[in-house]
Design goal:
With about 400 residues, this protein is an alpha/beta fold. Helices cover about 35% and strands about 15% of the residues. Strands 1-7-6-2-3-5-4 form a 7-stranded parallel sheet, with helices on both faces. The mean pLDDT is about 95.
């Protein structure tokens, strides 16, 4: 796979697939610009070489064509601020307007085209659509790791219309793969993985992969209650995947067989209604009363998790410990984030696995105290599960 530093973009027009799927508020203002900032080194390298840039991205899941909410026009002002130059905008990705704007680009100039998902052909991986996109430039750069697990036209198909020497991985794509590989192939021990979030079904494949690699596997979030039931506990109205209880029991047994310390919460912060201002009690994780639900790990679990994390040398975290969007149930997630920051300060390598984990680390103020925050929750999970990412395979000519 050709990397950015192996390519001189002087006089070249680069079609750069980025992941600018950033959240907007009701007034269409960006609320988290992480994905924009992470792509900046790639854009600046191309411009510094004397190349020009055509930016392609998706945003949201538009239904039936263009709409204001999902238009990349909303990003132009922020991009101009980021790059310190004018960013031209074209609403027609594969029509005459986009083609003309791209053809007229001069070295050092940037063109942003509108949401590729305004076209149904994008998500279908349509080859004809991909070929039209390829006409926008002379070299293809994929820096959209967050969409690399999608077999879409702009992420996995259009690369075939460029010669191998003109298919290039951007800095973000390269960095994401390098950091994931570091955790997968050469972790320093003790290696601790922390899996949270709502469902075991979302994490089953990565949990099974990690059981061959980690020393400690910490389970938190809603999925922990299915494990509690597998151990014979009562969880009240807490989240339960009833059809995954046997699976949870088998994972507990597999961990024992492989010598992995599977660490489950022993207590929970429980409430009688799903609200931040509700009454809150502490209960054992397997003895939650009927009518009550666990929404965060409890104080004993927090301390136990943090102690393990602090003495770890490699840490992978994917998924919050509770409903961190509510301040009263964000304490467990904050405890984990703080412990990861402390371990990192003591020399550990910490990889935060995108999605809600990335949001939590940013929201809680620990973003600059961990080793790496992935921009691709789903893509990172699939890569670590051992699956081939179509966007990566395309760059490698597969």
């Amino acid at each position: 796979m050709k990397t950015l530093d192996q390519y001189n973009f002087a006089g070249k027009r680069a079609v750069v697939r980025v992941d600018f799927n950033v959240p907007l508020d009701a007034d269409l203002r960006i609320t988290d610009d992480t994905r924009i900032r992470m792509a900046t080194p790639t854009i600046k390298k191309i411009l510094a070489d004397g190349g020009s840039v055509v930016l392609l991205s998706h945003m949201g899941r538009p239904k039936g064509g263009p709409d204001t909410k999902n238009s990349l026009r909303n990003l132009v002002a922020r991009l101009e601020q980021e790059y310190g130059t004018t960013v031209r905008f074209g609403g027609d990705v594969i029509g005459q307007e986009g083609a003309q704007l791209a053809a007229n680009l001069q070295p050092g100039e940037i063109l942003l085209l509108d949401n590729v998902r305004f076209y149904a052909e994008e998500e279908k991986g349509d080859a004809g659509f991909a070929e039209k996109l390829s006409k926008l430039g002379e070299v293809y750069v994929n820096d959209a790791f967050g969409a690399a697990h999608r077999k879409h036209a702009s992420t996995a198909v259009m690369a075939q219309y460029f010669t191998p020497e003109n298919r290039v991985a951007g800095y973000l794509m390269q960095s994401e793969l390098d950091n994931a590989q570091r955790v997968l192939t050469s972790p320093e021990h003790p290696f601790t993985a922390i899996m949270g979030g709502a469902k075991i079904s979302d994490k089953i494949l990565i949990i099974e992969q990690l059981l061959d690699k980690v020393d400690y596997l910490i389970i938190g979030g809603g999925m922990a209650y299915t494990f509690a039931v597998a151990q014979g506990g009562s969880i009240g109205n807490s989240l339960l995947e009833a059809d995954k209880v046997e699976l949870a029991a088998s994972l507990i047994e597999k961990a024992k067989q492989k010598g992995v310390q599977l660490v489950l919460p022993v207590d929970s912060m429980i409430t009688d209604r799903f609200a931040n201002d509700s009454d809150i009690e502490v209960a054992g994780n397997g003895s939650i009363p009927t009518g009550w639900m666990g929404l965060d790990i409890g104080p004993e679990s927090r301390e136990a998790f943090a102690a393990i994390i602090r003495q770890s040398k490699t840490i992978l975290w994917n998924g919050p410990m509770g409903v961190f969007e509510m301040s009263n149930f964000a304490v467990g997630t904050e405890f984990v984030a703080r412990a990861i920051a402390e371990a990192t300060a003591n020399g550990a390598f910490s990889l935060i696995g995108g999605g809600d984990s990335a949001a939590a680390v940013n929201q809680l103020g620990f973003a600059d105290q961990v080793s790496y925050i992935s921009t691709g929750g789903g893509a990172l999970l699939e890569y670590m599960e051992g699956k081939e990412l179509p966007g990566v395979a395309a760059l490698e000519g597969r």
